TrEMBL record:
Recorded superkingdom: Bacteria
Annotated ranges, domain ABC transporter: 2-223
Keywords: ATP-binding, Nucleotide-binding, Transport
Residues of the full protein shown: 1 to 223 of 291
GO terms for MF: ATP binding
Similarity-based family: Belongs to the ABC transporter superfamily.
Lineage of source species: Bacteria, Pseudomonadati, Pseudomonadota, Alphaproteobacteria, Sphingomonadales
Originating species: Sphingomonas anseongensis
Name of the protein in question: ABC transporter ATP-binding protein
Claim: ATP-binding is one of the keywords in the record: yes
């Protein structure tokens, strides 16, 4: 369970991106829905310990996330909105390097982890191709592969379907759905259908505040 309490964030220029956000997020898929500028990325980066909030607390199981960021990072899989630069390195080699950084020191164990993930994400056939040449859908599937290394218990995926065609979108969402109910998976998106199809629970964020929280079908029926 991820417990976010009274979280606020004001950027140095005065923009209030989060305004007293409290959410209890259970295991399984959880949707964070909101328009551009709602504060989703700020919230996801804060939970991922990439930035500190102005105030509030975050707990994940027995981890006090803001006080013990290193402990959270060991059990976090994070796929940022823009996964950034794609180096001229093969998918295989990049996953192997991520596995080293996540502390998998045994080469045979890494081989097994990397090969399993390449298969799961349908990237086996392009494992020796350069990431720089990957399409948007391939990049997102690669992003999930790297996020899953080390069996994280918390996975954060920020706006993953932007720019994907319908087939790639479905492939990607099916990958997320296959992660299972023992992991907290937060899917941040501005696309209602992404959440409605996959998430037993969701929150709607707008102007940095939680507007609604509950089951997607009930929320859609009530608006
Ligand atoms: P999103 O699509 O999540 O709204 P943006 O496209 O607004 O993200 O922002 C992209 C990057 O620019 C992010 O790193 C964000 O922190 C930064 N950014 C967004 N708005 C501002 C701003 N008003 N001033 C400075 N940086 C900003
Ligand atoms: P979302 O992910 O829902 O699009 P963001 O968290 O990116 O929302 O942005 C929330 C608000 O904070 C927006 O008004 C955005 O312009 C602003 N913002 C984001 N990053 C920065 C930043 N680094 N500096 C100033 N304002 C920012």
């Amino acid at each position: 369970m991820l417990e976010i309490q009274n979280l606020s964030h004001t950027y140095p220029n005065g923009t209030v991106a989060l305004d007293d956000v409290s959410l209890s997020i259970p295991r399984g898929m959880y949707g964070l829905l909101g328009p551009n500028g709602a504060g989703k990325s700020t919230l996801m980066r804060t939970v991922a310990t990439l930035q500190e909030p102005t105030s509030g607390t975050i707990r994940f199981g027995d981890i006090d996330v803001l006080a013990e960021p290193q402990r959270l990072r060991r059990t976090l899989g994070y796929l940022p909105q823009d996964f950034g630069v794609y180096p001229r390195v093969s998918a295989y080699s990049m996953l192997d390097q991520v596995a080293i950084l996540k502390g998998i020191t045994s080469a045979s164990e890494r081989k097994q982890v990397v090969e399993t993930l390449l298969n799961q994400t349908n990237l086996w056939g392009v494992r020796y191709k350069s990431l720089a040449g990957f399409s948007g859908g391939m990049r997102q599937r690669f992003g999930i592969a790297q996020a899953l290394i080390g069996n994280p218990e918390l996975i954060i995926v920020d706006e993953p379907t932007a720019g994907l065609d319908p087939e790639e979108r479905n492939r990607f969402l099916n990958l997320l759905a296959a992660i299972g109910d023992n992991v907290v998976v937060i899917l941040s998106t501005h696309i209602v259908a992404d959440v409605a199809d996959l998430c037993p629970r969701m929150a709607v964020l707008a102007n940095g505040r939680v507007q609604l929280e509950g089951k997607p079908l009930e929320l859609i029926a009530s608006t």
